[in-house]
Amino acid sequence: MDALLSVFKTSLFDGIMEKIKEISEEKINYKNGKKASLEFDKSTRIIADHARAIYFLISDGVTPSNEGRGYILRRIIRRAVRYGKLIGIEDYFLNDIGEAVVSEYSKIYPELLEKKEFSFNLIRDEENRFTKTLKEGSKVLIQKINRIKKDNGKYLDPEDAFRLYDTFGFPVELTAEILNENNLKLNMEKFNDYLKEHAEKSKSKILFDKKIDSNLEIYRNISKNLEVEFIGYQRSKAKTVIENIIKIDKNGNKELTSKIYEGEKGEIILRETPFYGEKGGQIGDKGIIRKGENFFAVTDCKIPVEGINIHKGRVKKGELKVGDKVSAEVDYNSRKNISKNHTAP
To answer: What InterPro entries is this protein classified in (predicted)?
Structure first.
């Protein structure tokens, strides 16, 4: 342990460790043998090591994604964020540490300084998204853990782990790590069975709408820069922003546009949405998207690619454009009826 700790006391880590110490609630004390201090030291070492890796990877051209090196980067960012929360850092903090990384290493690796603005914007966005995911998912997971302990259990139901992943985007690796910290386990083989079953259902569901299939490239391009936050489990109405609009002509062809007018059919993509999107299970929500007297009637909501909810419908009055601040309102009675039919034996 002493040898490992000494690595982080070298000049290579001085600036980074000092920055972590500044923004956290506790002070680092390598000589204190108390468990709390050891846990704090563990967290700060992980954050320091991950912060270096994050900024070096991005300066090398890697961006967060769901595959390959991009997925490794995303996992590292998420792990650093979680350990930051464990030592009391509530605000966004990675770019504060990034300043120290750039300061320490940019003379040797000038790419760090050259790509600083790009890296900082990318990381702030990723940290913002995952902070929300972590808050919502952790709350549910801790409730499950407390229940398991109360019942003297040892395993989390793989279906619960899948629901965390499917509903909140909560990474299964993080679920397994938190379970391990609580001396609990997850049957990964069964979890993967759920994942495979879900993928097969989603794949078969896409076939019901060939138009979605033929326009997947539009959605994939949108998903590169946007991940819609679903907030419908907490409420059925929300203030949000229009991120994208897709116009549908009389032949069913689709194209991105900045504005959609009264009488036109289209699809609206919001920054956050209370609308449940169909992706192989329950039917999507109906409702309206409005700005003042201008409103769009939502007849269906679907998830054609992961992270993108499309609200299908028609402008009933006025016009709406990208960037508009709107009110998204689910038809709650319709949702209740759908839920009853979906869960009925």
So the answer is: Ala-tRNA-lgiase_IIc, Ala-tRNA-ligase_IIc_anticod-bd, Ala-tRNA-synth_IIc_core, Ala-tRNA-synth_IIc_N, Ala-tRNA_ligase, Transl_B-barrel_sf
